[in-house]
What does this fold into?
Amino acid sequence: MIHLSEEDLILLYYGETGAPDFAQAHLAECPTCRDAAESLARALGVCNEITAPERPPDFGRDVWMQLAPQLGSQYRPKHLFPLRIWLSAAALAILLVAVFVAGRLSRPSPAPVMAGLSDRARERILDIAVADHLDRVQMLLTEIADGNGGGTGSFDADRERAEDLVQEDRLLRQSLASRGETATTNFLDDVETVLTEAAHTSDSAAAPYVGSAQALGELRNRIESGSLLFKVRIVESNLRNEDQKL
Amino acid sequence: MKDGDDTSLQQARCGDRDAFRVLVERHATAVFRLAYRMTGNETDAEDMVQETFLRAWREIRRFDGRASFGTWLHRICANRTVDFLRSRNRWQPAIPPSGPIATEQEHDPFRNLPSQLPSPERAARSAEARAMLEPALAALSEVERAAFVLRHYEGLAIEEVAGALGVQPGAARHSIFRAVRKLRRALEPVGSTSL
It folds into this structure.
Protein backbone atom coordinates (compact mmCIF):
# COMPACT_ATOMS: atom_id res chain seq x y z
CA MET A 1 0.00 0.00 0.00
CA ILE A 2 1.27 3.45 -0.88
CA HIS A 3 1.08 5.79 2.10
CA LEU A 4 0.67 9.51 2.06
CA SER A 5 3.80 11.60 2.34
CA GLU A 6 4.30 14.21 5.03
CA GLU A 7 3.85 16.88 2.34
CA ASP A 8 0.50 15.37 1.39
CA LEU A 9 -0.59 15.43 5.02
CA ILE A 10 0.45 19.08 5.39
CA LEU A 11 -1.53 20.02 2.29
CA LEU A 12 -4.55 18.14 3.65
CA TYR A 13 -4.17 19.78 7.06
CA TYR A 14 -4.31 23.23 5.50
CA GLY A 15 -6.99 22.30 3.00
CA GLU A 16 -4.69 23.05 0.10
CA THR A 17 -4.90 21.51 -3.33
CA GLY A 18 -2.02 19.40 -4.54
CA ALA A 19 -2.49 16.25 -2.49
CA PRO A 20 -3.28 13.10 -4.48
CA ASP A 21 -6.91 12.56 -5.41
CA PHE A 22 -7.07 9.39 -3.35
CA ALA A 23 -5.68 11.10 -0.24
CA GLN A 24 -8.92 11.62 1.66
CA ALA A 25 -10.19 8.14 0.95
CA HIS A 26 -6.83 6.64 1.85
CA LEU A 27 -6.73 8.53 5.10
CA ALA A 28 -10.10 7.10 6.08
CA GLU A 29 -8.98 3.53 5.63
CA CYS A 30 -5.26 3.58 6.52
CA PRO A 31 -4.51 3.62 10.27
CA THR A 32 -0.84 4.39 9.68
CA CYS A 33 -1.55 7.55 7.70
CA ARG A 34 -4.36 8.51 10.04
CA ASP A 35 -1.97 8.29 13.00
CA ALA A 36 0.57 10.38 11.09
CA ALA A 37 -2.09 12.99 10.29
CA GLU A 38 -3.18 13.13 13.92
CA SER A 39 0.41 13.45 15.06
CA LEU A 40 0.91 16.36 12.66
CA ALA A 41 -2.30 18.00 13.84
CA ARG A 42 -1.22 17.68 17.48
CA ALA A 43 2.12 19.32 16.83
CA LEU A 44 0.61 22.15 14.82
CA GLY A 45 -2.15 22.45 17.40
CA VAL A 46 0.42 23.66 19.88
CA CYS A 47 1.31 26.48 17.47
CA ASN A 48 -2.38 27.32 17.20
CA GLU A 49 -2.45 28.29 20.82
CA ILE A 50 0.18 30.96 20.50
CA THR A 51 -1.27 34.42 20.77
CA ALA A 52 0.39 37.76 20.26
CA PRO A 53 0.45 40.02 23.32
CA GLU A 54 -2.70 42.04 23.69
CA ARG A 55 -2.52 45.67 22.61
CA PRO A 56 -4.43 48.36 24.48
CA PRO A 57 -7.64 49.56 22.83
CA ASP A 58 -5.99 52.83 21.82
CA PHE A 59 -3.01 51.11 20.19
CA GLY A 60 -4.07 52.34 16.76
CA ARG A 61 -4.16 55.90 18.03
CA ASP A 62 -0.68 55.52 19.53
CA VAL A 63 0.61 54.18 16.22
CA TRP A 64 -0.88 57.17 14.45
CA MET A 65 0.61 59.64 16.91
CA GLN A 66 4.08 58.31 16.18
CA LEU A 67 3.44 58.01 12.49
CA ALA A 68 1.82 61.35 11.74
CA PRO A 69 4.95 63.55 12.10
CA GLN A 70 6.75 61.38 9.56
CA LEU A 71 4.09 61.58 6.89
CA GLY A 72 4.13 65.25 6.08
CA SER A 73 7.79 65.56 5.31
CA GLN A 74 8.20 62.28 3.52
CA TYR A 75 5.04 61.95 1.49
CA ARG A 76 5.82 62.91 -2.04
CA PRO A 77 3.00 62.98 -4.56
CA LYS A 78 4.33 60.80 -7.27
CA HIS A 79 3.63 62.98 -10.26
CA LEU A 80 5.44 66.10 -9.06
CA PHE A 81 9.04 64.99 -9.32
CA PRO A 82 8.80 63.38 -12.74
CA LEU A 83 7.12 66.54 -14.02
CA ARG A 84 9.94 68.65 -12.64
CA ILE A 85 12.50 66.27 -14.08
CA TRP A 86 10.86 66.29 -17.47
CA LEU A 87 10.61 70.05 -17.53
CA SER A 88 14.25 70.47 -16.60
CA ALA A 89 15.29 67.72 -19.02
CA ALA A 90 13.33 69.42 -21.80
CA ALA A 91 14.87 72.81 -20.98
CA LEU A 92 18.29 71.21 -20.87
CA ALA A 93 17.76 69.50 -24.20
CA ILE A 94 16.66 72.77 -25.83
CA LEU A 95 19.67 74.51 -24.32
CA LEU A 96 22.09 71.88 -25.53
CA VAL A 97 20.62 71.87 -29.01
CA ALA A 98 20.87 75.65 -29.11
CA VAL A 99 24.47 75.55 -27.93
CA PHE A 100 25.30 72.84 -30.41
CA VAL A 101 23.64 74.69 -33.30
CA ALA A 102 25.27 77.95 -32.33
CA GLY A 103 28.66 76.26 -32.17
CA ARG A 104 28.21 74.72 -35.60
CA LEU A 105 26.93 77.86 -37.23
CA SER A 106 28.97 80.51 -35.48
CA ARG A 107 31.91 80.55 -37.92
CA PRO A 108 30.32 80.56 -41.34
CA SER A 109 27.16 82.37 -40.37
CA PRO A 110 26.58 83.28 -36.73
CA ALA A 111 23.01 82.69 -35.64
CA PRO A 112 21.46 85.92 -34.48
CA VAL A 113 20.06 84.45 -31.26
CA MET A 114 23.34 82.90 -30.09
CA ALA A 115 25.59 85.45 -31.61
CA GLY A 116 26.05 87.18 -28.30
CA LEU A 117 27.09 83.99 -26.54
CA SER A 118 30.80 83.52 -26.27
CA ASP A 119 32.38 80.11 -25.86
CA ARG A 120 32.92 80.94 -22.22
CA ALA A 121 29.24 81.79 -21.73
CA ARG A 122 28.24 78.49 -23.27
CA GLU A 123 30.64 76.72 -20.92
CA ARG A 124 29.09 78.51 -17.97
CA ILE A 125 25.61 77.46 -19.03
CA LEU A 126 26.74 73.88 -19.27
CA ASP A 127 28.48 74.09 -15.89
CA ILE A 128 25.29 75.35 -14.27
CA ALA A 129 23.30 72.59 -15.91
CA VAL A 130 25.78 70.00 -14.59
CA ALA A 131 25.71 71.54 -11.10
CA ASP A 132 21.91 71.43 -11.06
CA HIS A 133 22.01 67.86 -12.24
CA LEU A 134 24.45 66.90 -9.48
CA ASP A 135 22.18 68.59 -6.97
CA ARG A 136 19.36 66.29 -8.03
CA VAL A 137 21.70 63.30 -7.98
CA GLN A 138 22.77 64.24 -4.48
CA MET A 139 19.17 64.37 -3.27
CA LEU A 140 18.42 60.97 -4.70
CA LEU A 141 21.59 59.28 -3.43
CA THR A 142 21.07 60.76 0.03
CA GLU A 143 17.59 59.32 0.18
CA ILE A 144 18.81 55.92 -0.95
CA ALA A 145 21.78 55.92 1.42
CA ASP A 146 19.62 57.00 4.35
CA GLY A 147 17.04 54.39 3.49
CA ASN A 148 14.27 56.99 3.20
CA GLY A 149 13.41 55.80 -0.20
CA GLY A 150 14.65 52.29 -0.28
CA GLY A 151 14.50 51.19 3.30
CA THR A 152 11.17 52.34 4.55
CA GLY A 153 9.52 54.09 1.68
CA SER A 154 8.92 53.80 -1.97
CA PHE A 155 12.01 52.74 -3.80
CA ASP A 156 9.93 52.46 -6.95
CA ALA A 157 9.60 56.24 -7.01
CA ASP A 158 13.35 56.61 -6.50
CA ARG A 159 13.97 54.16 -9.30
CA GLU A 160 11.96 56.28 -11.69
CA ARG A 161 13.92 59.34 -10.64
CA ALA A 162 17.12 57.41 -11.21
CA GLU A 163 15.99 56.49 -14.72
CA ASP A 164 15.34 60.14 -15.50
CA LEU A 165 18.69 61.16 -14.08
CA VAL A 166 20.50 58.54 -16.15
CA GLN A 167 19.17 60.16 -19.31
CA GLU A 168 20.08 63.61 -18.08
CA ASP A 169 23.54 62.44 -17.01
CA ARG A 170 24.18 60.93 -20.40
CA LEU A 171 23.29 64.13 -22.25
CA LEU A 172 25.51 66.22 -20.03
CA ARG A 173 28.37 63.77 -20.17
CA GLN A 174 28.34 63.83 -23.97
CA SER A 175 28.32 67.62 -23.98
CA LEU A 176 31.22 67.74 -21.54
CA ALA A 177 33.15 65.17 -23.56
CA SER A 178 32.78 67.25 -26.71
CA ARG A 179 34.18 70.18 -24.75
CA GLY A 180 37.17 68.11 -23.67
CA GLU A 181 36.29 68.14 -19.96
CA THR A 182 37.82 64.75 -19.23
CA ALA A 183 37.74 64.84 -15.42
CA THR A 184 34.08 65.87 -15.09
CA THR A 185 33.11 63.56 -17.94
CA ASN A 186 34.69 60.61 -16.17
CA PHE A 187 33.03 61.60 -12.93
CA LEU A 188 29.60 61.75 -14.59
CA ASP A 189 30.36 58.34 -16.04
CA ASP A 190 30.85 57.01 -12.49
CA VAL A 191 27.65 58.71 -11.39
CA GLU A 192 25.79 57.22 -14.31
CA THR A 193 26.91 53.72 -13.35
CA VAL A 194 25.43 54.10 -9.88
CA LEU A 195 22.27 55.73 -11.22
CA THR A 196 21.85 52.88 -13.68
CA GLU A 197 22.24 50.44 -10.83
CA ALA A 198 19.60 52.31 -8.85
CA ALA A 199 17.31 52.35 -11.87
CA HIS A 200 17.47 48.57 -12.03
CA THR A 201 17.08 47.83 -8.34
CA SER A 202 13.61 46.59 -7.44
CA ASP A 203 12.01 46.97 -4.04
CA SER A 204 8.32 47.33 -4.64
CA ALA A 205 6.22 47.20 -1.49
CA ALA A 206 4.20 44.19 -2.40
CA ALA A 207 6.39 42.81 -5.10
CA PRO A 208 9.18 40.29 -5.04
CA TYR A 209 11.54 40.99 -2.23
CA VAL A 210 13.94 38.18 -2.98
CA GLY A 211 17.26 39.75 -3.73
CA SER A 212 15.90 43.27 -3.45
CA ALA A 213 17.18 43.87 0.06
CA GLN A 214 20.58 42.54 -0.91
CA ALA A 215 20.71 44.61 -4.09
CA LEU A 216 19.64 47.70 -2.22
CA GLY A 217 22.21 47.02 0.48
CA GLU A 218 24.92 46.67 -2.12
CA LEU A 219 23.82 49.91 -3.73
CA ARG A 220 23.96 51.74 -0.41
CA ASN A 221 27.38 50.28 0.31
CA ARG A 222 28.55 51.42 -3.05
CA ILE A 223 27.31 54.94 -2.45
CA GLU A 224 28.88 55.10 0.98
CA SER A 225 32.10 53.17 0.46
CA GLY A 226 33.09 55.12 -2.62
CA SER A 227 32.42 58.47 -0.95
CA LEU A 228 30.30 59.18 -3.99
CA LEU A 229 28.03 61.61 -2.19
CA PHE A 230 31.02 63.56 -0.96
CA LYS A 231 32.49 63.73 -4.44
CA VAL A 232 29.15 64.83 -5.89
CA ARG A 233 29.03 67.69 -3.41
CA ILE A 234 32.60 68.72 -4.16
CA VAL A 235 32.19 68.70 -7.93
CA GLU A 236 28.89 70.55 -7.70
CA SER A 237 30.44 73.10 -5.35
CA ASN A 238 33.42 73.60 -7.66
CA LEU A 239 31.18 74.17 -10.65
CA ARG A 240 29.12 76.75 -8.79
CA ASN A 241 32.25 78.48 -7.48
CA GLU A 242 33.59 78.71 -11.02
CA ASP A 243 30.34 80.28 -12.04
CA GLN A 244 30.48 82.84 -9.23
CA LYS A 245 34.06 83.76 -10.04
CA LEU A 246 33.04 84.58 -13.55
CA MET B 1 -11.94 44.70 3.07
CA LYS B 2 -13.30 45.99 6.31
CA ASP B 3 -16.47 48.06 6.34
CA GLY B 4 -15.65 51.66 5.58
CA ASP B 5 -12.20 50.95 4.12
CA ASP B 6 -13.43 51.89 0.66
CA THR B 7 -14.28 55.47 1.50
CA SER B 8 -11.25 56.07 3.69
CA LEU B 9 -9.05 54.47 1.10
CA GLN B 10 -10.32 56.69 -1.69
CA GLN B 11 -9.73 59.77 0.42
CA ALA B 12 -6.32 58.60 1.62
CA ARG B 13 -5.27 58.01 -1.97
CA CYS B 14 -5.94 61.70 -2.56
CA GLY B 15 -3.59 62.59 0.27
CA ASP B 16 -6.17 62.89 3.03
CA ARG B 17 -4.26 62.22 6.24
CA ASP B 18 -7.37 61.99 8.39
CA ALA B 19 -8.70 59.23 6.18
CA PHE B 20 -5.38 57.43 6.43
CA ARG B 21 -5.55 57.78 10.18
CA VAL B 22 -8.84 55.87 10.16
CA LEU B 23 -7.14 53.05 8.26
CA VAL B 24 -4.17 53.03 10.62
CA GLU B 25 -6.33 52.85 13.70
CA ARG B 26 -8.45 50.12 12.17
CA HIS B 27 -5.63 47.84 11.02
CA ALA B 28 -2.80 48.53 13.48
CA THR B 29 -3.54 45.64 15.83
CA ALA B 30 -3.78 43.07 13.06
CA VAL B 31 -0.51 44.27 11.53
CA PHE B 32 1.10 44.11 14.97
CA ARG B 33 0.00 40.50 15.45
CA LEU B 34 1.58 39.50 12.15
CA ALA B 35 4.80 41.37 12.91
CA TYR B 36 4.98 39.90 16.39
CA ARG B 37 4.61 36.37 15.12
CA MET B 38 7.36 36.97 12.61
CA THR B 39 9.79 38.75 14.96
CA GLY B 40 8.87 37.20 18.31
CA ASN B 41 9.56 40.55 19.89
CA GLU B 42 7.13 43.32 20.85
CA THR B 43 9.51 46.22 20.28
CA ASP B 44 10.55 45.00 16.86
CA ALA B 45 6.94 44.27 15.98
CA GLU B 46 5.91 47.82 16.85
CA ASP B 47 8.75 49.17 14.70
CA MET B 48 7.51 47.02 11.84
CA VAL B 49 4.00 48.42 12.32
CA GLN B 50 5.37 51.94 11.93
CA GLU B 51 7.36 51.00 8.84
CA THR B 52 4.42 49.19 7.32
CA PHE B 53 2.09 52.17 7.60
CA LEU B 54 4.76 54.62 6.55
CA ARG B 55 5.34 52.63 3.43
CA ALA B 56 1.64 52.12 2.87
CA TRP B 57 1.15 55.91 2.91
CA ARG B 58 3.85 56.38 0.33
CA GLU B 59 2.58 53.57 -1.87
CA ILE B 60 -1.13 54.07 -1.42
CA ARG B 61 -1.56 55.49 -4.90
CA ARG B 62 -0.30 52.20 -6.25
CA PHE B 63 -2.85 50.13 -4.35
CA ASP B 64 -5.06 48.71 -7.08
CA GLY B 65 -7.78 47.16 -4.93
CA ARG B 66 -7.33 43.66 -6.30
CA ALA B 67 -6.69 42.42 -2.76
CA SER B 68 -8.23 43.89 0.35
CA PHE B 69 -6.44 46.77 1.98
CA GLY B 70 -5.72 44.54 4.99
CA THR B 71 -4.14 41.87 2.79
CA TRP B 72 -2.07 44.53 1.07
CA LEU B 73 -0.85 45.81 4.44
CA HIS B 74 0.03 42.26 5.45
CA ARG B 75 2.12 41.87 2.32
CA ILE B 76 4.01 45.04 3.05
CA CYS B 77 4.51 44.03 6.66
CA ALA B 78 5.68 40.53 5.72
CA ASN B 79 8.20 41.89 3.22
CA ARG B 80 9.50 44.60 5.52
CA THR B 81 9.83 42.14 8.38
CA VAL B 82 11.66 39.58 6.28
CA ASP B 83 14.12 42.26 5.18
CA PHE B 84 14.46 43.43 8.77
CA LEU B 85 15.12 39.93 10.06
CA ARG B 86 17.63 39.33 7.31
CA SER B 87 19.45 42.52 8.17
CA ARG B 88 19.58 41.50 11.80
CA ASN B 89 20.17 37.90 10.85
CA ARG B 90 18.31 36.60 13.79
CA TRP B 91 14.93 36.05 15.43
CA GLN B 92 14.67 37.47 18.89
CA PRO B 93 12.10 36.03 21.20
CA ALA B 94 10.88 38.48 23.78
CA ILE B 95 11.55 36.03 26.59
CA PRO B 96 14.66 33.90 26.84
CA PRO B 97 13.60 30.28 26.48
CA SER B 98 15.54 29.32 29.56
CA GLY B 99 14.00 32.02 31.76
CA PRO B 100 12.18 31.11 34.95
CA ILE B 101 8.50 30.30 34.52
CA ALA B 102 7.33 32.74 37.19
CA THR B 103 8.70 35.75 35.34
CA GLU B 104 7.29 34.62 32.03
CA GLN B 105 3.65 34.52 33.02
CA GLU B 106 2.93 37.92 31.56
CA HIS B 107 4.26 36.96 28.13
CA ASP B 108 3.20 33.36 28.21
CA PRO B 109 1.74 32.73 24.75
CA PHE B 110 -0.15 29.80 26.13
CA ARG B 111 -1.77 31.62 29.00
CA ASN B 112 -5.08 31.89 27.17
CA LEU B 113 -5.09 28.24 26.24
CA PRO B 114 -8.40 26.73 27.28
CA SER B 115 -7.48 23.69 29.23
CA GLN B 116 -8.94 21.16 31.64
CA LEU B 117 -5.55 20.65 33.23
CA PRO B 118 -4.79 21.94 36.67
CA SER B 119 -3.00 25.25 36.54
CA PRO B 120 0.47 24.12 37.72
CA GLU B 121 0.44 21.24 35.30
CA ARG B 122 -0.65 23.48 32.46
CA ALA B 123 1.96 26.05 33.36
CA ALA B 124 4.61 23.39 33.28
CA ARG B 125 3.40 22.12 29.91
CA SER B 126 3.23 25.63 28.55
CA ALA B 127 6.76 26.34 29.64
CA GLU B 128 7.90 23.08 28.13
CA ALA B 129 6.19 23.88 24.85
CA ARG B 130 7.60 27.37 24.72
CA ALA B 131 11.06 26.09 25.51
CA MET B 132 10.76 23.84 22.49
CA LEU B 133 8.95 26.25 20.20
CA GLU B 134 11.22 29.22 20.49
CA PRO B 135 14.44 27.51 19.41
CA ALA B 136 12.48 25.82 16.65
CA LEU B 137 11.18 29.16 15.39
CA ALA B 138 14.64 30.64 15.70
CA ALA B 139 16.01 27.83 13.58
CA LEU B 140 13.67 28.64 10.69
CA SER B 141 14.95 30.81 7.89
CA GLU B 142 13.26 34.18 7.45
CA VAL B 143 11.36 32.93 4.42
CA GLU B 144 10.31 29.72 6.15
CA ARG B 145 9.06 31.67 9.13
CA ALA B 146 7.25 34.22 6.99
CA ALA B 147 5.65 31.53 4.85
CA PHE B 148 4.60 29.54 7.89
CA VAL B 149 3.16 32.56 9.72
CA LEU B 150 1.23 33.70 6.66
CA ARG B 151 -0.14 30.20 6.01
CA HIS B 152 -0.71 29.01 9.56
CA TYR B 153 -1.73 32.15 11.43
CA GLU B 154 -2.97 34.47 8.74
CA GLY B 155 -4.75 31.75 6.81
CA LEU B 156 -3.39 32.73 3.40
CA ALA B 157 -3.51 30.05 0.74
CA ILE B 158 -0.12 28.94 -0.56
CA GLU B 159 -0.70 30.88 -3.79
CA GLU B 160 -1.34 34.00 -1.74
CA VAL B 161 1.72 33.37 0.42
CA ALA B 162 3.78 33.13 -2.74
CA GLY B 163 2.28 36.40 -4.00
CA ALA B 164 2.90 38.13 -0.71
CA LEU B 165 6.52 37.03 -0.57
CA GLY B 166 7.20 37.38 -4.26
CA VAL B 167 8.27 33.80 -4.76
CA GLN B 168 6.98 30.98 -6.91
CA PRO B 169 4.16 28.91 -5.41
CA GLY B 170 6.42 25.87 -5.40
CA ALA B 171 9.01 27.74 -3.36
CA ALA B 172 6.38 28.93 -0.91
CA ARG B 173 5.02 25.41 -0.60
CA HIS B 174 8.43 23.96 0.16
CA SER B 175 9.20 26.72 2.64
CA ILE B 176 6.02 25.77 4.48
CA PHE B 177 6.89 22.08 4.31
CA ARG B 178 10.33 22.71 5.75
CA ALA B 179 8.97 24.97 8.48
CA VAL B 180 6.29 22.50 9.51
CA ARG B 181 8.78 19.65 9.52
CA LYS B 182 11.15 21.54 11.79
CA LEU B 183 8.43 22.74 14.12
CA ARG B 184 6.83 19.35 14.23
CA ARG B 185 10.07 17.73 15.25
CA ALA B 186 10.43 20.26 18.03
CA LEU B 187 6.82 20.25 19.20
CA GLU B 188 5.71 16.70 18.78
CA PRO B 189 6.60 15.65 22.34
CA VAL B 190 4.42 18.45 23.71
CA GLY B 191 1.62 17.72 21.32
CA SER B 192 1.64 14.06 22.18
CA THR B 193 1.35 14.72 25.91
CA SER B 194 -1.48 17.17 25.47
CA LEU B 195 -3.90 14.57 24.23
User: Anything to note?
Assistant: Chain A touches chain B through 51 residues (CB under 8 Å).
